[in-house]
From TrEMBL:
Pfam families: DUF1003. The chain crosses the membrane at residues 50-72, 78-99. Keywords: Membrane, Plasmid, Transmembrane, Transmembrane helix. This is DUF1003 domain-containing protein. InterPro entries: DUF1003 (IPR010406). It comes from Mesorhizobium ciceri biovar biserrulae (strain HAMBI 2942 / LMG 23838 / WSM1271).
Amino acid sequence: MSDQRPANMHSVLHQNIEALVEHRRQQEEHQSVQVRIAGAISRFAGSMTFVYLHLAILVAWILANLGAMPAIPAWDPTFVILAMVASVEAIFLSTFVLINQNRMAEHSERRAELDLQISLLNEHETTRLIEMVAALAVRLNVSTPADKELRQLAENVDPRKVMTQIQQASEDQQEA
């Protein structure tokens, strides 16, 4: 037998986490300044600090323009300027959120592609293991309850065929 010891699961997990963190850090370093700014604005706009700040500004604006603060003359008694500022701010905030969502969707798509590649590799390795176990069973003349399924399990799955079948099933379901 080999003198090789199984990898410590904790150290493998730790290495994987470190690799993922490093990869994420590198991705963030390669983002453009505009994307970083949009992300920072989106994070701030999604915080309670943003809500409190806007609430304070809104209350002060309304009180000042209703004459509740005699030291400050009203500059927007009909609140038209407030409505315009709020509208312009909403346009910009929604744009920043969309930029951030596009970036997140791109990351999600990359992760999904990585997951698919790992799944395909895992399927290939599992198929090879099944072939090896089946060969051992034949050599040792051992029968198993899975003997009837071994031929099918030992076949590689063609992802194109699976995607075609999924597409066909989706179309069939939509037609029904």
